[in-house]
Amino acid sequence: MTKLENISMIKEANVYFDGKVVSRTIYLEDGSRQTLGVMQAGEYTFDTNEAEIMEMMSGDLEVKLPGESEFKTLNTPESFNVPANSSFDLRVKTVTDYCCSYIVA
């Protein structure tokens, strides 16, 4: 989906890692929540309380998911799932555009 219709957005940005990762929270018409953001080059560890679907829309990066011992190269656009109450590592090599969808249990 490249266009989101009928959304509500929180104006305040979510800023992480000294401004190298910035996103905005949106709510879809059905009440589900997503964040749309951009990551600068760098290495990041993200913790999550909720299960997520991370959709990397552009960029050059690698991911190491919970339970994995090695990084995997992503071929954007590509997505991956992150379980609730876990963390994952990213090696972002170029500016990366992403969408995170939160999965309600």
Q: What is the fold's blueprint, element by element?
A:
Layout: E1 8-9, E2 14-16, E3 21-27, E4 33-39, E5 42-48, E6 51-58, E7 60-64, E8 72-75, E9 78-82, E10 86-92, E11 96-103
Antiparallel strand pairs: 1-3, 2-3, 3-4, 4-11, 5-10, 6-9, 6-11, 7-8, 7-10
Identify the notable features of this structure and list them briefly:
seven-stranded antiparallel sheet, EC 2.4.2.1, RmlC-like_jellyroll, Jelly Rolls, 105 residues, four-stranded antiparallel sheet, transferase, single chain
Q: What is the CA-based Rg, rounded?
A: 13 Å
CATH architecture, by name, is Sandwich
Strand content: over 45%
The CATH superfamily appears as Jelly Rolls
Quick description:
With 105 residues, the chain is mainly beta. The protein has no helices and 11 strands. The strands form 2 sheets. Strands 1, 2, 3, 4, 6, 9 and 11 form a 7-stranded antiparallel beta sheet that branches.
